[in-house]
Amino acid sequence: MEKKELAVFLRRRREALRPHDVGLVEGPRRRTQGLRREEVAQLAGMSTDYYARLEQQRAPQPSVQITTALARALRLTPDERDHLFALIGHNAPVRFQRSEHVSPALLRVLERLNDDTPAIVLTDMADTLAMNPIATALLGDQTRHTGLARSAYYRWFTDPTDRLVYPEEDHPRHSRTQAARLRAALTAGGSDPRAARIVAELTERSPEFVQVWELQEVAQRYGESKTILHPSLGRIDVDAQVLFTENRAQTLVVMTARPGTESQGKLELLSVIGHQQLTP
Please, what is the angle between helix 78-88 and helix 3-16, to 10°? Predict the structure, then answer.
């Protein structure tokens, strides 16, 4: 049982909720940020004293039933729920076993996309398993990495060149996203030790990682709008849409530009030259 981590995680999640999120009335004189401890205890069906001791690192290990009740009371996502189970010391439901074999269903979709539509297949550890030619032209060959660096989570905090793909003003948002996705992967893959190794290595090497890791965010975030900086074509704005395998172990990320925009024209140019290097 990770008492310190658990206390911080519970407090962060409690402070992130408002009374109306859980069906409670928010009075005009309320000063507490988020829910009160007694409100969480009431929602979870436990004593306020016991919940307070959890946040104070003084409580004994909660049972599986209490852990489930806490997850429900705090409105945790499946990723956050699994992380809570791991912190308390219970086995979270194993969703999948990781595999280097690309999902045949995702691969079929990848092969049928238009030539001007970048797409990549990722594992939940952010290992790139497959890319179509235009994705390689846009992002570089992300399948070439070995060791811990196969994971984009690891590269983001250790390899400055990995950040050149995105504008500097977007880096803080990407850092939080990478940490939140890594935390989800930490508990989703069962006994696979690789995620824990990456966390330990990044804790030693990256103060920035330590800072965003302490936010205790847990999520698999993929679909979003983003700006990519190509070394020759410059700024390319894309919308990223995702398709998961049923067990969410692998993800197909498809990037498109809005019709009629300069970004769409740049993607069409990339589709013509394929993986060849452009010279400025």
Answer: 150
Q: How far apart are the first and last CA of the chain?
A: 55
Residue 261 near residue 237, CB atoms below 8 Å: yes
**Dist CA 147 CA 227 (whole Å):** 28
DSSP state of 165: G
100, pLDDT greater than 90: no
Cα 91 off chain centre by: 21
Which of 188, 172, 160, 280 is closest to 230 using CA atoms? 280
- Whole-model pTM over 0.70: no
| Rounded distance between C-alpha atoms, residue 41 and residue 258, angstroms | 48
How many angstroms separate the CA atoms of 94 and 82, rounded? 9
Q: E strand or H helix at 211, and its extent? A: helix 207-213
Top pLDDT among 185 and 170 is at: 170
What is the residue-wise DSSP string for 25-57? ---TT--SSS--HHHHHHHHTS-HHHHHHHHTT
Instruction: List CB contacts of 208: < 8 A, sequence separation 6 or more.
Output: 157, 175
Confidence tier at 103 by pLDDT (50, 70, 90): confident
CB 187 within 8 A of CB 83: yes
Question: Lowest-pLDDT range, 19-28, 62-71, 96-105?
Answer: 96-105
Report how far residue 11's alpha carbon sits from residue 194's, in angstroms, rounded to the nearest whole number: 28
Which tens digits make up the pLDDT trace of 115-136? Answer: 889 999 999 899 999 999 999 9
